[in-house]
């Protein structure tokens, strides 16, 4: 099996997952890339040493989205519509579910064009940092298809319905500067500074209690669809857990020691 993703974990608990399929510009369909990414996510969930994940790509593109050769196969009469539905459900649609459910914070370091499903992949992460060379396009309509991987759920939550509709109905690309203005990315940096900036941000996250960070991420996820009273009830339960961690006890002790000086 060709290795289409590379995984690294540094001593501080910052993991980096790099897409590396130059022949397709890191397309997400028509290869084993989704399966390999899912295997990494499962590994991260089992490994308490991982505190933050950076998702980036090799080459000039972040991801070209869908593989055109795969689309040509799907058009053919030998593939029934009901079969295509199952291909999506048991194929690329596993990616947003797994990435969204990942407990550790995720940072997309978008190095170049993020097209179609590639744009949606960036949207699945918690934070996005873009190179000045990055562009973003919800371009499915340009090919006469729809966002089949959850983009219609993620994009409006990030930039609002009107701007998500503009991107989705035109399929036009936006620049990194526009993505920053619209709130799609947190910052834009020169290409040579992209990974250092992502790693610096990841290090600031990794420096905090891993249990508190994971529980905080879960609360943010639940807040998107919970009532206030339900979220407060969950917060009380999570806070009870957090109060009993060594990280909390150490932080309180250090604070009191510093105050006595």
TrEMBL record:
GO molecular function: lyase activity
Keyword Lyase: yes
Biological processes annotated in GO: fatty acid beta-oxidation
UniProt-listed CDD domains: crotonase-like (cd06558)
Record InterPro entries: ClpP/crotonase-like_dom_sf (IPR029045), Enoyl-CoA_hydra/iso (IPR001753), Enoyl-CoA_hydra_C (IPR014748)
Signal peptide: none
Homology family: Belongs to the enoyl-CoA hydratase/isomerase family.
Protein's UniProt name: Crotonase/enoyl-CoA hydratase family protein
């Amino acid at each position: 099996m060709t290795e289409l993703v590379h995984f690294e974990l540094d001593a501080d608990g910052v993991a980096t997952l790099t897409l590396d399929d130059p022949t397709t510009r890191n397309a997400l369909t028509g290869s084993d890339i989704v399966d390999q990414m899912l295997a990494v996510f499962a590994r991260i969930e089992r490994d308490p040493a991982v505190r933050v994940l950076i998702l980036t790509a090799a080459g000039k593109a972040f991801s070209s989205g869908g593989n055109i050769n795969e689309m040509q196969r799907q058009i053919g009469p030998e593939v029934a519509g009901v079969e295509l539905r199952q291909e999506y459900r048991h194929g690329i649609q596993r990616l947003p579910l797994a990435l969204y459910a990942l407990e550790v914070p995720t940072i997309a370091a978008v190095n170049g064009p993020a097209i179609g499903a590639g744009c949606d992949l960036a949207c699945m992460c918690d934070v996005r940092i873009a190179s000045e060379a990055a562009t973003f396009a919800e371009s499915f309509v340009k090919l006469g298809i729809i966002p089949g991987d959850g983009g219609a759920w993620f994009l409006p939550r990030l930039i609002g319905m009107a701007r998500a509709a503009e991107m989705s109905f035109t399929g036009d690309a936006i620049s990194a500067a526009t993505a920053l203005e619209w709130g799609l990315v947190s910052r834009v940096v020169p290409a040579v500074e992209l990974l250092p900036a992502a790693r610096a941000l990841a290090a600031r996250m990794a420096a905090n209690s891993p249990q508190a960070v994971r529980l905080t991420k879960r609360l943010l996820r639940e807040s998107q669809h919970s009532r206030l009273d339900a979220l407060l009830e969950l917060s009380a339960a999570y806070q009870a857990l957090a109060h009993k961690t060594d990280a909390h006890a150490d932080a309180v002790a250090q604070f009191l020691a510093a105050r006595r000086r």
